[in-house]
Amino acid sequence: MTVESAPDADATAPEAPRQVDGRAALDEFVADNDVVLADFYADWCGPCQMLEPVVETLAAETEAAVAKVDVDANQQLAGAYGVRGVPTLVLFADGEQVEEVVGVQGEDQLRALIGRYAE
């Protein structure tokens, strides 16, 4: 699956989380956006479901683009990033992984994390 990007992808991040499948799609999404929050989740994970509205709000209200990665469908990708538990959030800035947090995080904590890297 490829990630569709708007013609002005560099100007604004997508306002809704994007489902990403596979390493190539995640790499492309990270390359197309300055700051990316990748949410490694599982449908069966209660804490992941609790985090969902926070992730959606961050996608809509911050400079970060949000990628959703289903760890059950993307086990190799999750393994490549050392994901051992869900939810795991990986933050990319300028194409590089800069932060990783495991477990449910508060919206304020995640906004502050994104704010350190967003312009």
TrEMBL record:
Q: Which InterPro entries match?
A: Thioredoxin, Thioredoxin-like_sf, Thioredoxin_CS, Thioredoxin_domain
One cellular component term from this protein's GO annotations in UniProt: cytoplasm
Q: Which domain of life is it from?
A: Archaea
State the residue spans of region: Disordered.
1-20
Q: Name one GO molecular function term.
A: protein-disulfide reductase activity
Is Mitochondrion tagged as a keyword? no
Keywords for this entry?
Disulfide bond, Electron transport, Redox-active center, Transport
Cite the record's Low complexity compositional bias ranges. 1-17
SUPFAM superfamilies, alphabetized: Thioredoxin-like
UniProt keyword annotation of Ribonucleoprotein present:
no
What range(s) does the Thioredoxin domain occupy? Answer: 1-119
Q: What protein name does the entry list? A: Thioredoxin
What is the organism of origin for this protein? Halosimplex litoreum
Q: What is the lineage of its organism?
A: Archaea, Methanobacteriati, Methanobacteriota, Stenosarchaea group, Halobacteria
The gene that this protein is the product of is: trxA
